[in-house]
Amino acid sequence: MVTSRDVARVAGVSQSTVSYVMSGRRSISAETRKRVLDAIEQLTYQPNAGARALASQRTQVIGLVVRFRPGADTTGLLPFIETIAGCARAEDHDVLLVTADEGSAGLTRLAGRALCDAIVMMDIEADDARIPVAAALRVPVLLIGVPDDSAGLHCVDVDFADAGRLAVDELAAAGHDRVVVIGHAPDVVERDINFVRRFQRGATAAAEAHGIGLDLVSPVPPDRAGAEAAVREALARGGDRTGIVVPNSPAVQPVLQALLDRGVVPGRDISLIGLCTDVAAEASTPAVTNVSLEPRDVSRRAMEILFRLLDRSGDRPTQLVELIRPRLTRRETTLPAP
Amino acid sequence: MVTSRDVARVAGVSQSTVSYVMSGRRSISAETRKRVLDAIEQLTYQPNAGARALASQRTQVIGLVVRFRPGADTTGLLPFIETIAGCARAEDHDVLLVTADEGSAGLTRLAGRALCDAIVMMDIEADDARIPVAAALRVPVLLIGVPDDSAGLHCVDVDFADAGRLAVDELAAAGHDRVVVIGHAPDVVERDINFVRRFQRGATAAAEAHGIGLDLVSPVPPDRAGAEAAVREALARGGDRTGIVVPNSPAVQPVLQALLDRGVVPGRDISLIGLCTDVAAEASTPAVTNVSLEPRDVSRRAMEILFRLLDRSGDRPTQLVELIRPRLTRRETTLPAP
DNA sequence: CTGTTAGCGCGTTCAT
DNA sequence: ATGAACGCGCTAACAG
């Protein structure tokens, strides 16, 4: 292993000078800087991360706590991870992956062993047992998702209330006088993820504002049988002018299929709006009008806040909860405005 | 921050004794061991990862290099990541995530900065520029995927030749006298991922063994238009007794849909076998008979080998390339054997 | 502008 | 069975 001492010897300077050239924390004459940089290149020197962390109390690592669940909307996880990793690298940090099934222990380990400088925690439940633990850590923690009580932690999430409003507004504009929300997945409802309620609140408020009815069919398993039962119930309750919202990414396709199976064609006979990524919306046949959750925007903003929190100099963001506005894209499953 | 010195003071022993209690690398009297463990608990002491890495030359971290691609079969990535993370934790290691778009630089960084003890690299191309770099690192590297030349590195992958054979065997048994392989995604073909060829070889060999014809429609974009064109071509070329194989996870659903749209019902009129995860196969309507790639088995085996490579004591595995046998599951899209 | 020096917290050898 | 002491490679305060 080549150390900064080796570099110093080759460059004919002291070891600390090498360190200062790398950190730029004090001015170095152009000439010695060049000698050092040449030596670094010649030896392909790279600083030892452990030694650096020990001396500087900075690991240059972001801990990322994710929950892998079988089946569920786990597909939507990758854009988050990818964006977070990208943002981290852009700030010369790496990402240490920790799974949520370690629970609070994962958090205390990350902080207690000084494995990372900050933590991003995803998939937050409304009453999440990890929150108080996270808030007591000696590293900043940022939540993607909004718990009932964030205990002073910063949160970033999609504005689900706005998503509900967007969908209902669109259906109202398309002339529907009734909206059925075919609900979230059973496990999501059970785990009491906050966004279920927030979405519902937004949708209900919008329906009231438009003076149209809103029914809820929930929960809905994201499979064939679940979708068929839900569609049957949804159609039974309403008439021709019913619009359907599916705020459950993996259920969108089955619901669409169930409608088609019954000879009800979204975009011709009825309107269907899904809450899912654009990729998923475009992949289905016909392409589903969707409200996109913009995982990349959420992640980017989260990392922005996180690095501001890490900047000792910078001023910290005042707003604790930040909601990213979703975007509705009209595709083939909604009726045009009359 | 509480250090091992603090623990030592509270326990009334020397710092080195604390270290030895934790590592178990020398015998400690039951009494002092207890005193130390009590102190550790009382202070909730956790060893500093950087200091430990510096002193022991071991980071307890596995570097994981993954490629996030937009759209593609990126969904299949999560089971790998999840399983790898789980196996790592089971051996008291953590996982540092690095994206493939750093290329070789990511590898040299991981090893050069001593960020990890070993590396798992996924999504290997047939002629992957990173292989020689990886082989020269001072840490063991394990490939998930098989390049043309692994440069002495250990590889684990699905036995794609066997997958091709399994699918064709099944179609032959179902009485089909012709097989059409609706190919891989364009980007996969273009990047020359090795498994395309391996699958093809296995399928061709099996077809010859059964004395039945085999046609290839390739590449196929995993969208509606791509699938429809492919299906049209596939049906045009063959007769009633044609069996279809789709070795392209995201294209399975569109191909199925395209068949149904033409009034051709798999399981009644024709046989369709997909190369995809069981979850994906079960989700579609009707459920697709599939050859599963068993990402969890592959990952588990990969980590098994990796940790054996890390064990200085243990004997290293002799076999360089290890192929995991896939499994065919009959569902609703294949005809019964006559 | 540069060199010297003192830790950072832990693993491990040497001494007892 | 235990303690003292050294060094891992680097940052940063101090001294010039």
From TrEMBL, chains A, B:
Residues 3-46 form the HTH cro/C1-type domain. It holds the Pfam family Peripla_BP_3. InterPro entries: Cro/C1-type_HTH, HTH_LacI, LacI/GalR-like_sensor, Lambda_DNA-bd_dom_sf, Peripla_BP_I. Keywords: DNA-binding, Transcription, Transcription regulation. Signal peptide: none annotated. CDD domains: HTH_LacI (cd01392). It comes from the Bacteria. Gene3D superfamilies: 3.40.50.2300, lambda repressor-like DNA-binding domains. One of its GO terms (molecular function) is DNA binding. Residues 2-56 form the HTH lacI-type domain. PANTHER family: LACI-RELATED TRANSCRIPTIONAL REPRESSOR, LACTOSE OPERON REPRESSOR. This is LacI family DNA-binding transcriptional regulator.
